[in-house]
Amino acid sequence: MSDMKEIYDYIDAHADEFVADLQSFVRQPSISAQDIGLRECAELLRDMMHKDGLPAEFHELREGPPVVFGEIKSKSSKKSMLCYSHYDVQPPEPIEAWTHGGPWSAEIVDGVLYGRGATDNKSGVMAFNKAAKAFLAVRGDVPVGLKLLIEGEEEIGSPNLGPWAEQNKELLAADGMHCLDGSLEVGPDVPDVSLGLKSVLFVELVARGARTDVHSLNFPLVPNPVWDLVHCLATIMDRDRNILIDDWAEGIYIPDEDHEGFLADKAARIDFDLLKEELGVDNFVLNREGIDAVRARTYEPTANIQGIVGGYTGKGTKTIVPAEARVRMDFRLIPNIQPDAAAKKLRDHIAAQGFDNIEVRTFERAEEPYKISAKEDISEAIIAAAHEVYGEPPIVNGVSAEGAILRHVWIPCVLTGFANPGCNLHAPDENVHVDKYIQGIKYAAAIMEHFGKS
């Protein structure tokens, strides 16, 4: 679109300002899991939006930090787009693994900005805001009505967003929704465009034995909760990554012809050797390669063990049989596996296996997975915008890894991102390349333009 040149030129001319604002944003800790700095970050964000001439106000939730929300109406388009992002970040630990000044430095080294939230998701927040600012500065109007929603609990599952969304359906109603979060695909250096989201069911299994730790000479007489967990976990998934719970995949989404084509296109374009290098492995599990690896990553339900705690692991030895052991798991659920039904199947499975000393605890209610068509206006607009800004078609995924809003207000929703591969999401030395950030602002602007005209 030739009429976007002035917008892109404005973004380039203000690149230093936009980078400095991202640095200020990253320097403010905002850790939802530890309740650190959230309101302070929301206040900073609101002030930055006001400075940019954007509307922004707090919407208080029943608990937790506020939602920052601003609506900009368009004079030229009747359509509206909900731009979802979040200002909270993952915990930065282990702190000692960070370089370049630590997790809150926002230091730029060789064109790379380091800090927690640099990619996930503070650069995405800034991309939406700076794209809107560019349109208002150049045209005095935005090409589509914008509803800018930035929440502060995404990294812990948005436990308080759903009830607020249910009470604010009219405020949130839009023709399309998207989220700028994540990185470009390894190899072709183009965005992923995900036309759906998996649900994530978080559980904790708690195994109990004797009333208290007992001397290990009593091992023949008392249960060992750690062994019970080990045996229980082996009944949930086998070594070939098959989930063994009865009817776990009942009703699962089967890719249609279009999405089989997306899988083949992705397999042909991504660099698997670079992906292995980024992940730090010599081979993918089960020696998966090509389209099989892509299909598994996109459409395979998972049963991941996050961590196990039990007994004594300190200095020296301690001859005990522990009284308790715990394991944290996350199950990624493909459409149309429903989280409540999946949790019940897990409980029934563990009971049927005879592990009556293991309690299954679920965390905040998981949101349903969803899937949309590549032919939705928002899908076509984002695919066209990615092609325009990055010079070739994006990688289109069937589903990826936001549902608290969609459960109450159905909006066709797409997830895409612009950070560099190797951005270390959720890990030490999270980063974003400055040039990718500026390009990401142009990407956000192009999405707004294409969607307004679609």
UniProtKB/TrEMBL annotation:
Residues 211-353 form the Peptidase M20 dimerisation domain. Keywords: Hydrolase, Metal-binding, Protease. GO terms for molecular function: metal ion binding; peptidase activity. GO terms for biological process: proteolysis. InterPro entries: Cyt/Met_Dipeptidase, Peptidase_M20, Peptidase_M20_dimer. PANTHER family: BETA-ALA-HIS DIPEPTIDASE (PTHR43270), DI- AND TRIPEPTIDASE DUG2-RELATED (PTHR43270:SF8). This is Acetylornithine deacetylase/Succinyl-diaminopimelate desuccinylase.
